[in-house]
Amino acid sequence: MKLATIVCSIAIGGLWLVGCPSDDDDDTTVEECPTAETPTADIIQPSNTAQFESGVEVQFVAKVDDDLDTSQSLETHWYDALYLEPEEFPAPAPDANGEMRFAKSDFENGIHTLTLEVFDSDGCRGEDKIVINVGAER
Fold first, then answer.
1. N or C terminus: which one in the chain shows less Cβ crowding within 10 Å?
2. What is the 3-state secondary structure (H, E, C) of 82-106?
3. What's the rounded Cα separation, in Å, for the pair 8 and 75?
4. Rounded-to-integer distance, Cα 137 and Cα 67, Å
5. Residue 87: HSE in the Cβ half-sphere, 13 Å Cα cutoff
């Protein structure tokens, strides 16, 4: 699988963040998996580098899949890294089609790296990441 990464820089109050994920669909991180294909994670919405006003409700749509396990049996975790300190936040489990839909409105102002991490029953791992800006002037 081709892994694409675009290096970018964002300046916020003198702090530079480097290494933003790309907008490519092939940006799922793949770890070595001894027994099967790794599960896949895809954050569909919001889009990478999206900007939101403070306090707005951000709509999430994501999809997970695995060649071995059903979508509902996959273990998923969402992380929000504001200024490089990741914290897990609650989100609903995937439905039978592997889709996850929810809204979140309690983001602090700043640049957030959002990560969806998925594990299958073999312990194989996949992830997808995006960066959003909350409190951005439009």
1. C
2. ECCEEEEECCCCCCCCCEEEEEECC
3. 31
4. 42
5. 8
What is the C-alpha separation between 61 and 50, in angstroms, rounded? 14
Distance CA 80, CA 76 (A): 14
Determine contact, residues 38/124, Cβ cutoff 8 Å: yes
- What kind of architecture, by CATH, is found in domain 27-134? Sandwich (2.60)
Determine the Cα–Cα distance for residues 56 and 28; give it in Å rounded to an integer. Answer: 27
The structure's pTM equals 0.76
Other CB atoms within 10 Å distance of the CB of residue 47: 10
Q: Hey, where are the domains in the chain?
A: 27-134
**Each residue of 35-50: pLDDT tens digit?**
668 999 999 999 999 9
Question: Rounded to an integer, what distance in angstroms lies between the CA atom of residue 4 and that of residue 22?
Answer: 7
